[in-house]
Amino acid sequence: MPTKESDDAKVKLGGRFHRLFCATLVSAIGTGMHAAALPLLALQSTSSPMALSFVVMAAEIPWVLLSLHAGVVVDRLDRRRVMMWADLGRFAVLVGLTVLILTATAQVNLLWLVVAAFLLGVGQVFFDLAAQSAIPDFVSRDPRNLATANGRIVAAESNGEDFVGPPVGSALFGVWNFLPFAGNALSFAASGLLILSIRTDAKPKETSEGPRKSVRSEIVEGIRWLFGNRTLRALATVSCLGNVAATAQFAMLALLAKEVLGLPDFGFGLLLAATAVGATVGGLAAAAGSKRFGPGAVMLAGKAGVGLAILVLGLVANAWVAAAMMILTGALMTAEKVVVSTLRQQIVPDELLGRVLSASRLVVMAGGPVGAALGGVLATLFAVQVSYVAAGVLLILVALVFYPVLNNRALASATDEPAG
């Protein structure tokens, strides 16, 4: 009997899920290349902290503008095709940016980078919502299976975006500044083809006999589900505040690496890679950690631990200490993300998952532009380290304030809680 059960789990985490995993990894590697290269390209034109924050804000704003409508699209259409078209769109954007870089006679126009970051962010909204909503299509809703699947997907994203992609992107940038963007375009093309090859047993998404609901009413249904469930509401709020701190940290990381730590361009990529070393461990260990210590303990300890690590980044100007803190940050943030994703997939019905996820992401990602702007303002008015100290203190306070709502005991009945 145990053998049969484990065989079933292997089937559910293999085949179609494995192709989704490979597509995610390939796409993430390219994304990591341009994540490291975009700030470096911006720094060729300006050293202004606010200019860097504009580029980061442009990538985050689509979540605020489009996520609710994207959730409706994800619930109405074949989620695989949504991912494929998102990849195709991002491929086109990066081809265009590559051509602009190659044909530029002087410095690269900052406006190009802002527009490209915005369009890439639009593609990421649709891809991420569809990919996250598609996981239960390939894996049973058993908490252990969902946690393992989420952990592997998050580990693939982190390895690609933070471990493999950034060092390769920054190294290629040093050779020729268009190369990371051309490489990213190819990665999106490969990811789209992998997703297209996934077969599905799911029946076409047709509304039953009555007239289809309006987009507005479907959006409202997802929002009501999110805010009517106390656990989902708390998770979204905590994640939003966490995103304010995380984005403030990331927006100023290139500046911290160059001006405070004295690292070359390649060193900035290695700092991002250090995050992925921890994220790999956090993603793969999250399921076991959640089972042993409880999801609430993993989430709250992770939030406070990330706050402490960011605080140290603002207080200690040492490259080795910074790398250690980035490893710790990656591990804890990834474990948190796996726990939150698993809880959400357990609580929300499949037909509502895209809309509830999009409403949650809207709340969470609204913190991104705020964090990027605050990071830029604090670095401009005071010093780049001040933005790190402020972000670290914020996260520690968040963990303390939300302990009564998100401890293990409070989460024990989360899957039985009805929507309001």
UniProtKB/TrEMBL annotation:
Its main location: membrane. Keywords: Cell membrane, Membrane, Transmembrane, Transmembrane helix, Transport. SUPFAM superfamilies: MFS general substrate transporter. Residues 16-410 form the Major facilitator superfamily (MFS) profile domain. The chain crosses the membrane at residues 20-44, 50-73, 178-198, 234-256, 268-288, 308-335, 362-382, 388-406. It is a multi-pass membrane protein. The keyword Transmembrane helix applies. The keyword Nucleus does not apply. It is found in: Cell membrane. PANTHER family: INTEGRAL MEMBRANE EFFLUX PROTEIN-RELATED, MAJOR FACILITATOR SUPERFAMILY ASSOCIATED DOMAIN-CONTAINING PROTEIN. This is MFS transporter. The lineage of its organism: Bacteria, Bacillati, Actinomycetota, Actinomycetes, Pseudonocardiales.
